[in-house]
Amino acid sequence: MRLSRLVGLTVLLTAIVSMIVAGSFEGAWAEEEMIEGAPSAPESAGAGKYYEFSDILIPHELKLERQKSFIYETAAFTAGVLRFSGRVEVKSLTDFFTESMRTDNWTLAAKFTTPEVVLLFEKPNKRAFIIISETTFATNAQVWVAPFMGVLK
């Protein structure tokens, strides 16, 4: 739990600093509907759908927890956290995200397996953390996305 909070705080701080650098602060709560222009889900499985992050597929077994989510949008990027819950095995959810993110041109940079699973994905201009945890009656997934503007010197 502590690792997840640290990772989450790091991603959130990165997003806030990026917002300040960009000079724009136009936060938005988007609707739960699929966004227009998002890549289509694979034909064969009806495997999931895309929410505010148009390149991160979420399996249908997970339901969005809107009240626990936050999205920040500008003309240049979309950042924030989407939280989901559902009844799915941690291993199958980990495998789903690993494969679907690869399909959407993300690179798996790191994987931490503690009581939680933390997946770090990279693209040239952004990073995504997916944190998967399990409770007695549900599996939870947090999808954190923040812009990446290079290493600070």
Can you offer a commentary on this structure?
The chain contains 2 helices and 9 strands, in the order αβββββαββββ. The chain has 153 residues and is an alpha+beta fold. It has one domain: 2-Layer Sandwich (TATA-Binding Protein). The longest helix is centred in the N-terminal third of the chain and has 21 residues, at 2-22. The protein is globular, with a radius of gyration of 15 Å.
Q: Helical proportion?
A: 10-25%
Number of helices: 2
For the terminal residues, how far apart are their CA atoms? Answer: 31 Å
Write the H/E string, N to C: HEEEEEHEEEE
Second rung of CATH, namely the architecture:
2-Layer Sandwich
Q: Would you state the CATH class?
A: Alpha Beta
Number of domains: 1
Calculate Rg over CA atoms: 15 Å
Number of strands: 9
Write the layout of secondary structure elements.
Elements: H1 2-22, E1 48-50, E2 57-59, E3 63-64, E4 70-73, E5 78-86, H2 90-103, E6 107-113, E7 117-123, E8 126-134, E9 139-147
Antiparallel strand pairs: 1-2, 3-5, 4-5, 5-9, 6-7, 7-8, 8-9
